[in-house]
Q: What sequence folds into this?
């Protein structure tokens, strides 16, 4: 009987320690546009509304210049343990949690690598932008099924400074 109580107490302590080490304190890291390069395409990452990042459970951070590059990287690195993923609100450029964001896709929406998806902190802003741009509102779940096709003909039209490093 005493051994069972000890086992239950140890399991309870382990659960409390694991929950105390959760990802609530994980914060996005700032982008240094002079040195940061996209983990997928190796282009420089501008500190703008298109930047995204993934923080692994071991603390390693990967930055991306386009949300489509981030999806390509996660497809190719399925064995990596992701702690948290951040995107930026298109209007405010503030970091927001990827899973809690809303997205708009439209072939006319310009992004650094022409995946044409942008993120928003709130649904009403995303809906408004989708209506004005003729794009489609997407949820986090919709993005998991999205066809991540580049519209390369738009690459040369991008106005953000973007170069190979």
A:
């Amino acid at each position: 009987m005493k051994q069972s109580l000890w086992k239950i107490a140890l399991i309870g302590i382990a659960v409390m320690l694991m929950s105390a080490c959760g990802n609530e304190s994980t914060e996005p890291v700032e982008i240094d546009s002079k040195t940061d390069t996209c983990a997928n395409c190796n282009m420089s990452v501008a500190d703008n509304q298109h930047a995204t990042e993934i923080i692994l459970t071991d603390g390693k951070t990967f930055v991306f210049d386009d949300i489509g590059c981030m999806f390509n990287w996660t497809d190719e690195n399925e064995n990596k343990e992701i702690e948290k993923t951040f995107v930026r609100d298109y209007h405010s450029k503030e970091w927001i949690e990827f899973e809690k964001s809303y997205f708009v896709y439209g072939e006319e929406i310009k992004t650094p690598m022409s995946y044409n998806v942008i993120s928003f902190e709130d649904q009403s802003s995303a809906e408004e932008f989708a209506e004005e741009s003729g794009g489609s509102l997407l949820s986090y779940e919709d993005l998991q099924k999205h066809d991540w096709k580049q519209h390369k003909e738009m690459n040369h039209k991008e106005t953000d400074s973007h170069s190979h490093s």
In short: Strands lie at 52-56, 61-64, 82-88, 95-97, 102-105, 117-120, 136-138.
